[in-house]
Amino acid sequence: MLNSGKHPEHAEYFSDCALPVDVFHFKSKHKETDLICNQFCNPYSWEELRIVSDDGAEVWHFNSSAAEQSNAWIGGYQSIVREMQADRYDFFLDEMIKRRNRKTIGDLRRSRKAPHQIPLRYFFELMMMGVRVYRHNSHQC
Predict the structure, then answer these.
(1) Domain residues for 100?
(2) CA atoms of 3 and 12, how far apart (whole Å)
(3) Alpha-carbon distance 62 to 125, whole Å?
(4) Domains held by the chain: number
(5) Arithmetic mean of pLDDT, 84-105
(6) Is residue 136 part of a domain?
(7) What is the per-residue pLDDT for 123?
(8) How big is the CA angle at 46 (ends 105 and 39), to the nearest 5 degrees?
(9) pTM (predicted TM-score)
(10) In a 10 Å sphere around its CB, with 0-12 CB exposed, 13-18 middle and 19+ buried, how is residue 133 labelled?
(11) What is the pLDDT of residue 125?
(12) Closest among 67, 49, 69, 68 to 59, alpha carbons compared
């Protein structure tokens, strides 16, 4: 973990970063007795990740399982993009993500689901608040 003491400069660099993991991952892969994981990786620790629904229940503001699935999908391109220059890498992934999103939205609409977009203003609000959220992909903290 970043707080291991091996690299003290890492603790300062990441001091204002959140490291929440996927909700399922946290419940199944992290020990309740691991205080560091509970402090730094528990997604429930960040209010920004939860909202109150119309019926008054507190729910997740995002689908963390979908995020995990997307990260696994992107990982499938690792062998293709490994040797790419940064500009080609960005272009390739941008195009592949757009294509996947279009296909997913089409599939959802055909199955009579109601996909929607998160308003862009939400992301600007997060940026203005200085929120930085990084995905932590380790199975052990």
Answers:
(1) 8-129
(2) 10
(3) 16
(4) 1
(5) 92
(6) no
(7) 67
(8) 125
(9) 0.47
(10) middle
(11) 77
(12) 49
Residue with tokens 């399982």: 65
Round to whole Å and give the CA distance between 44 and 24.
Answer: 12
* 74 within a domain of the structure (yes/no): yes
- How many CB atoms neighbour CB 43 within 10 A? 20
Instruction: Give a yes or no: residue 45 inside a domain.
Output: yes
Look at the block and give the residue holding tokens 């959220």: 133
Residue 38 to residue 26: CA distance in whole angstroms: 9
Which tokens in the block code for residue 116? 């929607």
Q: One-letter amino acid identity for 60?
A: W
Give the pLDDT confidence of 117-133 residue by residue, as tens digits: 666 677 677 777 776 54
134 belongs to a structural domain: no
Contacts of 105 (CB under 8 A, 6+ apart): 115
Q: Which residue has the tokens 């929607």?
A: 116
Query: What tens digit of pLDDT does each residue of 53-93 get?
Result: 888 888 887 777 777 788 889 889 999 999 999 999 999 99
HSE, side-chain direction, 13 A CA sphere, residue 80: 12
DSSP letter for each residue of 29-90: HS-TT-HHHHHHT-GGG-GGGEEE-TTS-EEESS-HHHHHHHHHHHHTTHHHHTT--HHHHH
